[in-house]
Amino acid sequence: MSEIKEVIVKTDRLATDKYQVNMGPQHPSTHGVLRLLVTLEGEKVLNVQPHTGYIHSGIEKMCEAITYPQIIHLTDRMDYLSAHMSNEAVALCVENALQIEVPDRVKYIRTIMDELTRLASHQLWWCVYGMDLGALTTFFYGLRDRELILDIFEETCGARMTVSYNTPGGLMFDIHPNFQKRVKDYIKYFKTKLPEYDQLLSGNVIMRERTEGIGYLTLEEAIDFGVTGPSGRASGFSNDVRKHQPYSAYPLVKFNEILDHRCDSLARYEVRIKEMWESISIIEQLIDNIPEGDYALKMKGVLKLPEGEFYQRVETARGEFGVFIISDGKKNPYRLKFRSPGFSNLFALNNMAKGHKIADLVAIMSTLDLIIPDIDR
Amino acid sequence: MKSFIEYIVSIFKGVWTLLIGMKVTGKYVFTPWKHVTHSYPENRDTLVMFERFRGEVIMPHDANNEHKCTGCGICELNCPNGSIEIISKSIVTPEGKKKRLIDQHIYHLGMCTLCNLCVKACPTGAIVMGQNFEHAVWDRAKLTKVLNQPGSKISEGVKE
Amino acid sequence: MAFNIYDFTTLTHDIHVGLAESFSPVLATTIEWVIVGVVYLLFVALFGLFLVYAERKVCAAFQQRLGPTRVGPWGLLQTIADFIKLLMKELIMPRKADWFLYNLAPFIVIIASFLAIAVLPFAPGLQSLDFDIGVFYLTAVSSVGVIGILLAGWSSNNKYSLIGAMRSGAQILSYELSVSLSLLTMVVFAGTMQFSAIVEGQRDAWFIFSGHIPAVIAFVVFLIAGTAETNRGPFDLAEAESELVAGFHTEYSGIKFAMFFLAEYINLFIVSAVAATVFLGGWMPLHFGNFESFNHVMDFIPPVMWFFMKVLGVIFVIMWFKWTFPRLRVDQILTLEWKYLLPINLVNILLMALVVLTKFHF
């Protein structure tokens, strides 16, 4: 009997150790420079600890030295896929602080450009998600469709991704005469391509096996971590700023807030696909009805905000983006803080990835749609 | 028995979704002439950028080598990171008034973020955004440009 | 020497007779072996280069872009440029790696591929080994490649390589079963394991047409199991970058990596060639029983071209799988084999046996 007990004790020491692995700042799956310290036991993930700050550029500090119209061009380098929405947040914050109202034309154009940016961002997310799962052609199909939106931006604003189109008081210049026609042609084209996305990836049995039941984030956890955007809405957390605190032309359009209660990766995926359909519907409602008028108000040469604290939130493609300005009456802000959606979303990764295999970790991180410069600023 | 039927049905459903996916990519592989890429260096002759494309800041000169820059320095004030340096000089006109002229409009292309604030702020429309995007050079000193060409002067009738 | 493109037996017969006249029997046989070896080496090298280029061009066509276009006309010399680059790389060996096994592993993988190519019938008269247990030999020999992979992972002295090699080994061993059983289905139908007899038996109609439902099911299962065997397509988790490293060939560089790379494409060729031979008729033109004029027209194309057309068709379908589907996780790969493909195979063999016994086939 004692011999048997000895054998059992000896094999107990064959149990695998926990070991820590760096998914280092240089990733094969290119989400940016993020370091994840993963504690593994065999194949199972026990703990994921993100280390951020590899691309910290001091944007908030830089904003303390420049004037309000000059802050706008820095915001499109943070969350570069929702550049227009970040610009709009700063412009709206300054306009609310000065208590001025922009013309209706500006509101309509801002909302149309917002929704086009959201479409472009979700297309890029979809193509990178397919690539992370292994379906390498989805990368090119998503980019092909996104190129046409970037052409629209380039014709009107002059730049493809870092648009800098907003200024406090309106827009930098009026839309190009071809803008409406291009957008309408694009919507017609994209409506034939979006069902292809479903056929290629969403319905695929392999994709479903890889995402159903993986990366569970309950509603309580989503609220605790402050996970906003499509990742939070897939857990049933109703947080769409466009519905709760509408800005620009959002009070005038009819659209649905997409909520899903399944809380897993597949839910996050489907929420974004449905949001693409909603964006198309919003653009269709607005594109023919842009009112005539000025494209900007006449503002003073040097803008000085009154003393006080001002906050403005917008809904970017990733979640709620907030701009908080503390002003002491001068032409530079005293302190400017950005509430970035990626920062809150990233730290829910630990809860989502515990217990899954390492191959799932990359897929789960991909459904969160992280942009690292947004997290590090 | 029910789970056995579910098993068989799941096999057929799974294979059907895979075949639909293959049909989508099949549509593209059998039409390879419809590729969406451009052959970039070879198509330089026919490449036309949009007119509002922000490639770099240039100061257009007309046929008499004249520009519209008065040396006011508003573009330098508006630039967020100091990519523009205005060096102006003072001359005395025949009427006896002191006039400010532009000596050198130094533009650091290496630092410029192409934010368009200088172009928007210029009161005379002297600088515009050019469409050239091929700025790679071997020598960093070439990225510091002087925008007003040598021997040029301001054209008549430009308001201060 | 008569060179009849429709039947290579005249060519080989003439060479054999010519050699036997000029040299002693031992020397003649040795020279014949050398000729066969050189021909196979050249074929493997050239076809491997061509397949790498074709993969890149086909991949580009799926993604609506052009592939390599700059190196040589239409980018034809791209693979040669890649191989010259690999040849010039420094061969780094990890310090505590087992020297003998580390260097042996790429060779075993290539040798396994060569052994398997030897039995394939390219054209009437172009088959170097014609055993009467051809199919059995093929399945036996293709299992030798696993040893190479496991050796590569073990001898690298790297725990991630070992994990990758173990996964790869488990995957290949499981899918060997499916491959063998689906080939066995067709052996039941053909009644013989000899490759030349299998091809002859498809003179009236290819097996995929004459052995209707069970043959089609066996073909589909063979395609899936074949792509899993070669570690490509949706089953490439062992070497994809979403894992922490590159799998069992992480520690290899330069020419040794080129050998693993080449072996993967040669395995792709072997799987396609076996599918073309056993299911699609080998070098037999497309004949339909009684349409004499149609058969006569089909006979104009030389059998060698028929063979390569079929092989390239199957290769294209396998590439289609790779570029469309996402990757499967390793436990899903094994679930697919043991819970889905294996029962389907067993039931299919039963069905095929019934079909043969009741003569319910064309």
List keywords for this structure.
heterotrimer; A: 377 residues; alpha+beta; Cytochrome-c3 Hydrogenase, chain B; three-stranded antiparallel beta sheet; 12% strand; disordered N terminus; B: 160 residues; Alpha-Beta Plaits; 2 domains; two-stranded antiparallel ribbon; 24% helix; 21% strand
Which superfamily, in CATH terms, is the homologous superfamily of chain A? Answer: Cytochrome-c3 Hydrogenase, chain B
Mean pLDDT of chain A: 86
Morphology call of chain B: elongated
Write down how many β-strands of chain B occur, each being a DSSP E stretch of 2 or more residues: 7
Proportion of beta-strand residues of chain B: 15-25%
Number of strands of chain A: 8
Helix share, percent of chain B = 10-25%
How far apart lie the N and C ends of chain A? 65 Å
Description:
- The complex is a heterotrimer of chains A (377), B (160) and C (362).
- Chain A has helices spanning 2-12, 59-62, 68-75, 83-98, 104-133, 137-157, 179-202, 205-211, 219-225, 230-233, 241-244, 265-287, 341-346, 349-353, 358-367, 372-376; strands at residues 18-23, 35-41, 44-51, 166-167, 170-171, 308-315, 320-327, 335-339.
- With 377 residues, chain A is of the alpha+beta class.
- The model of chain A is unreliable at 1-14 (pLDDT under 50).
- Chain B folds into two domains: 2-34; 48-154, Alpha-Beta Plaits, CATH 3.30.70.
- Chain B contains three helices and seven strands; from the N terminus they run αββαββαβββ.
- Chain B has helices at 2-29, 74-78, 117-121; strands spanning 56-58, 66-67, 84-92, 98-108, 128-130, 144-146, 153-154.
- A three-stranded antiparallel sheet of chain B has the order 3-4-6, with no helix packed on it. A two-stranded antiparallel ribbon of chain B has the order 1-5.
- In chain B, strand 3 and strand 4 (98-108) form a beta hairpin.
- Chain C has two domains: 1-88, no CATH class; 95-357, no CATH class.
- In chain C, 67% of the residues lie in helices and 0% in strands.
- Chain C is globular, with a radius of gyration of 21 Å.
- The model of chain C has no long low-confidence stretch (mean pLDDT 85).
- Chains in contact: A-B, A-C, B-C.
- The interface between B and C is medium-sized, with 15 and 16 residues.
